[in-house]
Specification:
Blueprint lengths: L7 H14 L16 H9 L12 H17 L6 E5 L2 H18 L1 H13 L7 E5 L5 H9 L2 E5 L9 H7 L4 E7 L11 H11 L2 E6 L24 E4 L12 E5 L2 H5 L3 E2 L7 E2 L8 H38 L4 E2 L7 E5 L3 H12 L4 E3 L4 E5 L6 H18 L1
Parallel strand pairs: 2-3, 2-4, 4-5, 5-6
Antiparallel strand pairs: 1-7, 6-7, 8-9, 10-11, 11-13, 12-13
The protein binds pyridoxal-5'-phosphate.
């Protein structure tokens, strides 16, 4: 650090230069984030210093958070669900599974088996979690941090998790299941009703990762069963900073029952509040205000319009690609498209190098992945398709 500070102008110049090096979303078809809504940005700035880690000092922001939880709980068919605003899907997933693991370790069955293994010198079995093979990589972090074995269930032809595979992986050390409502790579929705039935039958938890799909599915014409309406669903991750058009970092984690949240409790002796359930200490009150502002400004009608436009653009893209004999790996459920394209990796890198387009890749099956976020326009799609055509023609 310099001994004396730079001038405001010098700082502004450096920042402008750095900002100039960032890609504009107008060339990005790989991200699940987008420009936040203007009203979210204004609210974020207004609450910039608010720290939800010590919410006794920021009662107004805390009340906004409570309202958000009840709005989202209502959207997900449980207005009295409990939880908090996280930094996003990763933290929500970590905390949801941490709660499962804590409650599993406290259960009398586990305590009994731990006691008998102590007596017999056998090691107590490691808890495991059954996730779809399409689960976001945050679950690999979950496994590492929480020392939980990850059991990956295979997918069916439509890239939904196979219910039989899930069933076959469950044993007495399974702490719970994960279902995805809007998978990162394919935008697919797992058979959550069936998984909810299994969770109830086996008396285990079921966490739904709706980080992306949570602000899409409730606003689609077709209705999907993925939320607390299903009695086996015990927690949900949903991210306002993705399709919710809020600012980063805005995630929400909701639990069906208070005892799940309670299992995350830590004492906080020197704060204005005596307990915390969150993973991080200091938390952005700005993101809370932003999420409150955009959700109330748009209302369901506003999100319906946003989702409907993204889907219109998605279908427009597919029609144009059909003319080029390029087809999706699965019929898109939401605004995520995985395309069957030859030499995907090469096509991806040429799109970036020659035309400055950012797209991504799906692993299994291998495909070119596009996310049609609210910053995408018809012109953007026309221009992208023309550039993709040039590359594909040159491969022949
Ligand atoms: C389904 C799903 N879950 C979790 C995450 C992780 O979210 P974040 O990057 O906000 O932590 C993502 C990110 O794209 C996702 O698509």
């Amino acid at each position: 650090m310099n001994e004396t500070g730079l001038s405001e102008e010098e700082i502004r110049n450096i920042l402008n230069d750095s900002k100039g090096q960032d890609l504009k979303y107008e060339r990005v078809l790989s991200s699940m984030c987008t420009y936040p809504h203007k009203i979210a940005v204004q609210a974020h700035m207004q609450f910039i210093e608010s720290n939800m880690g010590d919410f006794g000092l920021f009662r107004g922001t805390y009340n906004l958070e409570k309202e958000i939880l009840s709005l989202i709980g209502d959207l997900l068919h449980k207005a009295d669900a409990v939880g908090y605003m996280t930094t996003g899907g990763t933290e929500s997933n970590i905390q949801a599974i941490r709660s499962m693991r804590n409650l599993f370790l406290q259960s009398s069955e586990y305590q009994n088996s731990a006691n008998s293994s102590k007596n017999s010198d056998n090691k107590c079995a490691r808890p495991n979690l059954v996730v779809p093979d399409s689960a976001h990589f945050s679950f690999d972090k979950v496994s590492d941090i929480l020392d939980v074995e990850l059991r990956k269930a295979s997918l069916d032809d439509e890239l939904k998790v196979s219910v039989e595979s899930v069933r076959s992986l469950i044993d007495e050390n399974t702490i719970g299941l994960v279902a995805i409502a809007g998978s990162t790579e394919f935008g697919q929705v797992d058979p959550i009703k069936e998984l909810s039935d299994i969770a109830l039958e086996k008396n285990i938890f079921l966490h739904v990762d709706a980080a992306f799909g949570g602000f899409v599915l409730p606003f689609m014409k077709k209705s999907y069963e993925f939320d607390f309406k299903l009695p086996g669903v015990t927690s949900i991750a949903i991210d306002p900073h993705k399709m919710g058009l809020s600012t980063i970092p805005s995630g929400v984690l909701l639990f069906r029952d208070f005892h799940q949240l309670e299992s995350l409790k830590a004492d906080t002796p020197y704060l204005t509040v005596s307990t915390q359930y969150t993973l991080t200490g200091t938390r952005s009150g700005a993101a809370v205000a932003a999420t409150y502002a955009v959700m109330n400004f748009l209302g369901k009608e506003g999100y319906r319009k946003t989702v409907s436009r993204c889907m219109e653009l998605t279908h427009y893209l597919l029609e144009k690609l059909k003319d080029m004999d390029v087809y999706p790996l699965i019929e898109p459920v939401m605004n995520v498209v995985a395309l069957e394209v030859p030499k995907c990796d090469l096509v991806r890198s040429r799109l970036a190098k020659e035309f400055n387009w950012q797209v991504s890749i799906t692993q299994n099956p291998h495909g070119l992945r596009l996310v049609i976020m609210p910053h995408v326009s018809f012109e953007m799609i026309d221009s992208f398709v023309a550039d993709l055509k040039k590359i594909l023609d040159s491969l022949e």
